[in-house]
Amino acid sequence: MKQFEGIYPAIITPVDAEEEINEKALEQVIEKTLKQGVSGFYVSGSTGESFLLRDEQRVQLIRTICGIVNGRGDVIANIGTFSTKGSIRMAEAVADCGVAAVSAVPPFYFPYSKEEILQYYRDLASATGMPTLIYNIPKMSGVSFDTQELIDFLKTDGILGVKQTTMDLMQTEALVRECTDKVIFNGHDEIWLPALSVGVKAAIGSSFSIMGDVFIGIKKAFDAGNMEHARYLQGKGNAMLKTLLEIGIFPAIKGVLKLQGIDCGDCIKPFQPLTAKDYEKLEKALEDLYDGLTI
Ligand code: MN9
């Protein structure tokens, strides 16, 4: 199976005042981050506000991003919806535009058995024929797996790997060790350096749209054995993340992009627009981040 390595922004979805996709801003974010050296993009995920978009907007988003990236990175498309058929339909609608893999959160809201969840992934992988990435995000989906369950899921045919959006590094370490032919993506930017130390090689994260350079730098320093510099960069990133999380990570990321000169609009309602005070805080955090920063 294809290998994935490096930094993959979980890209935000820029929208206009009518909450329609702003393709111009999308292109600006993609070009900026590709220039920094990201390996590809995770599209229509949590950070992309996927569950606030209409199905046809998600398809438009994925197809547009594939067109802009045009082979310069891997596009991983989150096509997960509430039902198996709905997810397969979305995967089919983007199958011809060059996505490297599809991904889905476990079906949620109704309390499914683990067997039903496993069957969902089997059905996705076999119907789409595309490498399929499990999106493990218990805090949002309300579905959690123990380590053995995840290992069993990962051994399923057609499963590419897992996006581990959990702080449980003991579980992540076990997945890396037990599932050597699978891709384990780190999903919490705050623990990128610790994840590298247990053998993870790739990360998908929200903050990479605004500071991908810092996280690429962490891996470079780690690979070169320069732990002191890697720790310094993780610290810089985490100070920024603290402010983003206090404000609300997704609206805050769009706010920072605006300060960086790319107007991606506000998050879709019921998210609320940022206040003037939020922008002040973000401006200060951004100044602190790049103040004397060496990558
Ligand atoms: O895609 C993101 N997870 C969520 C991964 O959005 C829930 C992370 O990048 C977090 O936003 C980030 C802040 O906790 O680590």
Overview of the structural elements:
It is built from twelve helices and eight strands. It has 295 residues and is α/β, with parallel strands linked by helices. The longest helix has 21 residues. The radius of gyration is 18 Å and the shape is globular. 2-(acetylamino)-2-deoxy-D-mannose binds next to strand 8 and helix 10.
Give a count of the beta strands, DSSP E runs of length 2 or more.
8
The SSE string, one letter per element, is EHEHEHEHEHHEHEHEHHHH
Bound molecules: 2-(acetylamino)-2-deoxy-D-mannose
Number of DSSP helices? Answer: 12
- Overall structural class, as computed from helix and strand content, comes to alpha/beta
What would the principal axes of the Cα set say about the shape?
globular
Strand order of the largest sheet: 1-8-7-6-5-4-3-2
Distance between the termini: 32 Å
Mean of pLDDT: 97
Radius of gyration: 18 Å
Strand content: 5-15%
Stretches with pLDDT under 50, minimum 5 residues: none
Helix content: 40-55%
Largest sheet: 8 strands, parallel
Secondary structure topology:
Elements: E1 6-9, H1 23-36, E2 40-43, H2 55-69, E3 74-78, H3 84-93, E4 101-104, H4 114-128, E5 132-136, H5 138-141, H6 147-154, E6 159-164, H7 169-178, E7 183-186, H8 192-197, E8 202-205, H9 208-223, H10 227-247, H11 249-259, H12 276-290
Parallel strand pairs: 1-8, 2-3, 3-4, 4-5, 5-6, 6-7, 7-8
Helix pairs in contact: 1-2, 1-9, 3-4, 9-10, 10-11, 10-12, 11-12
Bound molecules: 2-(acetylamino)-2-deoxy-D-mannose (MN9).
Short descriptors:
alpha/beta, 8 strands, globular, 8-stranded parallel β-sheet, 295 residues, binds 2-(acetylamino)-2-deoxy-D-mannose, 49% helix
